[in-house]
Amino acid sequence: MTFPEYQHGGDIYGITGIRKDFSINLNPLGMPAAVQQAICDNVSHYDVYPDPYCRELATKLAARWGFDLSWLCFGNGAADLIFRLFFALKPRRMLTLAPTFSEYEEAAKLVDCDISYYYLSADKDFVLAEDILTLITKDLDLVFICNPNNPTGLLAQAELMTKLVKRCADCGVVLAVDECFMPFTTGRSLRDQLLSFDNLIIFRAFTKIYSMAGLRLGYIMCSNEKLVHSLRRIAQPWAVSTVAQVAALAALDVPDWIKDTVRLVATERERVASGLERLGLKVFRGEANYILFCSQFPLDVLLRERGILIRSCANFVGLDQSYYRIGIKTREENSYLLRQLESVLTSV
């Protein structure tokens, strides 16, 4: 059997000889040691079904953010919850960005939702501008924004995001905001708007910031309890494994993890971006733990021959095969990538 080409980064299983995977956007610090220890210490609990509501985790998160347990719903990664949202709402028309994370579009297609795009321009460095507000009308059912955006890594201005949620509320439109990469930045979450706007739903994940991609655990925050209940009803039974819940609980207790991550990512992102520019590549500087750049050469193919995987962005709406995304890793790994890129570019 031949499996189809996977449309996301991280498919090291379908490509032989990969030694370094820069196609994924995980924490360069890896999984916290305390999380690894908690996973091992709780093996005796894995022979029973997991808590279907993640009660202990919900209690801990609700206390941290200062809101009610009923505002939370957990899933098998944020992607699971994205699809659940579309099945719950069954929106007729959606507005999203281009380029952006492709699963919003994939989920929309499954419920025959018409998709409109706000096209971000490379000439304007893919910045989200206020004219998006003019596209939000009562004809829409859903607006989906990734902040910081993937693959550009750019944060939307906090004031614009506040205007977005207010505009959506005035038009009776649900605003879904994917903040899975927000913990890597110094950006401001829309979390403080949840009490005022029950049309707002925020997506977060443990996957990226705690390097738990193989465990799968995401969650949503929303003050619309009817909508949250709908997302819970649509879930498969026991959607979040016990090991994922154990890992998440331990992760929340790791001191200074996010602060240390933000500092490392900011330092290495600047260094790698400058290195790419010195190699003559066009770099679009963002605030997340990944970098978007472009090249006239097929760098994904050339680097794969050297055992390095980077993310081709050819399948993103609004981009083509000249755009690539790389995740920020450790200083040693990033330096290795820059050396390999220099070698590749001098040989073509």
Structure commentary:
The protein is α/β, with parallel strands linked by helices and 348 residues long. It folds into 2 domains: 20-31 and 256-347, Alpha-Beta Complex (Aspartate Aminotransferase, domain 1); 33-251, 3-Layer(aba) Sandwich (Aspartate Aminotransferase, domain 2), CATH 3.40.640. Helices cover 35% and strands 16% of the residues. The protein has 11 helices and 13 strands. Strands 2-8-7-6-5-3-4 form a 7-stranded mixed β-sheet, with helices on both faces. A 4-stranded antiparallel β-sheet has the order 9-10-13-12, covered by helices on one side. Strands 1-11 form a two-stranded parallel sheet. The protein is globular and about 60 Å long. The two termini are 35 Å apart. The mean pLDDT is 95.
Question: Can you summarize this structure?
Answer:
The protein has 348 residues and is α/β, with parallel strands linked by helices. It is built from 11 helices and 13 strands.
